[in-house]
Amino acid sequence: PKTMLFYNRGAFITTEGSDSLEDLKNLEEAGVTIMTCGTCLQHYGLSEKLKVGTVTNMYTITETMTKASKIIKP
Q1: C-alpha–C-alpha distance, residues 6 and 58, integer Å
Q2: Which of 15, 22, 27, 68 is placed for a possible disulfide with 49 were both Cys, Cβ 3.0 to 4.6 Å?
Q3: Cα(59)–Cα(72) distance, rounded to whole angstroms?
Q4: What is the signed CA dihedral for 49, 32, 19, 64, rounded to 10 degrees?
């Protein structure tokens, strides 16, 4: 993938304690952009626990999804 977006409870996947951190770090090193919703991190008390990717907002998430040629949802 080119970009991976994490929002709502998906914020837990990019934070301390996630079983997916190593895989996500490998993807990031390979050039995949990983972004997590900052409001979601705050809501769940995870702001200080982000371990991979960057913090973004829902405007950027929505804009990224709108411009995407393909979206894969869980």
Answers
A1: 10
A2: 15
A3: 19
A4: 70
Give the count of beta carbons closer than 10 Å to the beta carbon of residue 7.
18
- Is the model's pTM score more than 0.85? yes
Is the backbone of residue 65 left (phi > 0), alpha (psi -120 to 50) or beta?
A: alpha
What kind and span of H or E run contains 23?
A: helix 21-29
Count CB-CB contacts under 10 A for residue 45.
Answer: 9
| Cβ atoms of 50 and 41 closer than 8 Å | yes
Cα 64 to Cα 3: distance, rounded to the nearest angstrom = 9
Residue 73 has pLDDT above 90, yes or no: no
Is pLDDT at 74 greater than 80 in this prediction? no
Classify 68 as helix, strand or coil. coil
